[in-house]
Amino acid sequence: MAGRHSKRSDVDVGIARQRGVRRLGVIDARTRVEHLVSEQSAAAHRHTGCYVAQCGAMVLAASLTEPGRGPCAECVG
Questions:
Q1: 36 belongs to a structural domain
Q2: What pTM, to 2 d.p., does this model score?
Q3: Which residues make Cβ contacts (< 8 Å) with residue 27, sequence separation at least 6?
Q4: Is residue 51 part of a domain?
Q5: How confident is the model at residue 23 (pLDDT cuts 50, 70, 90)?
Q6: Closest by Cα among 9, 3, 53 to 28
Q7: Number of independent structural domains in the chain
Q8: For the residues 20-48, what does the mean pLDDT come to?
Q9: Which of 3, 28, 59, 75 qualifies as a FRET site for 47, CA 20 to 30 Å off?
Q10: Which domain, by its residues, includes 53?
């Protein structure tokens, strides 16, 4: 018996992909400032731990660190 809420296999109900470049917040271990890093930069440099931020700064990722000085003004603006 097929009810109103039965699952239909002929309908694709996937989640729509977000368009545009996604940015990740990475905190620099040296300055404790949060920079925005693209997913492509994060994937390309994940083994070294140093990423190129949106503002052009080289960021050394700090694990489990809160941003002591807040977000980078150049990355946000």
A1: yes
A2: 0.68
A3: 33, 34, 35, 59, 61, 62, 65, 66, 67
A4: yes
A5: confident
A6: 53
A7: 1
A8: 88
A9: 75
A10: 23-76
